[in-house]
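User: Last request for today: this protein with NAI, please.
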Amino acid sequence: MDKKKNISMAVIKRLPKYHRYLGDLMKNDVDRISSKELSETIGFTASQIRQDLNCFGDFGQQGYGYNVSELYSQIRSILGLTKVYNTAIIGAGNIGQALANYTRFEKLGFKLKIIFDINPKLVGIRIQDIEIKDIDYLTDYLKQNPIDIGILCVPNNSAQKVCDILIKNGVRGIWNFAPVDLVVPKDIKVENVHLSDSLLTLSCLLNDIE
Ligand code: NAI
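Assistant: Here's the final one, the structure of the complex with NAI:
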């Protein structure tokens, strides 16, 4: 696990794609694959793949390629997918409800335990059999039920306040959908998801400057 500390953010960002492709290869009973073959499906260059995978072990063998299941399990371990994370969604509006309805996160080990909202009209409603609770109950709940990841789907003006409560009560990871730069202590990990950034990237590509 020490090796993980030396892995660059750029490599970490590519790992989910390796995980996805190697998972597909396993499903198709592929035992081994060369960096060239992997490159043809995954879209990274063969030398990029060799460099990336060298970061966390000696998997490739000249003339043999990579052992798919070994590599897959190593990547799962580096991605922290060998354990289960308890998650809570805060804000059960459009995004919160869409995420709560997406059950595939649970297959990856992210278990949605509870949903909170401030709107009394939403409190009591069930999504995928999980009841939406009143936000006033958040602190009490967290004190009794450890949550690893808080999924922030509240409006901008509430995001920092809710984030502070989560952190104060033991949450160490924030998956932030609100377009706000959260201020958090160093040991807290925040991953921001901004769909509009991705859309603007597409717009930029469509309007290639000559
Ligand atoms: P929404 O208005 O449908 O849902 C927000 C929910 O948060 C509402 O149900 C509201 O009652 C609840 N809420 C408000 N204050 C709260 C508090 N203090 N505690 C608990 N619940 C509270 O909004 P939508 O469309 O789901 O967007 C949610 C957030 O995501 C917003 O910050 C929005 O700007 C952002 N957003 C992010 C995108 C992305 O790509 N990450 C894309 C679109 C929106």
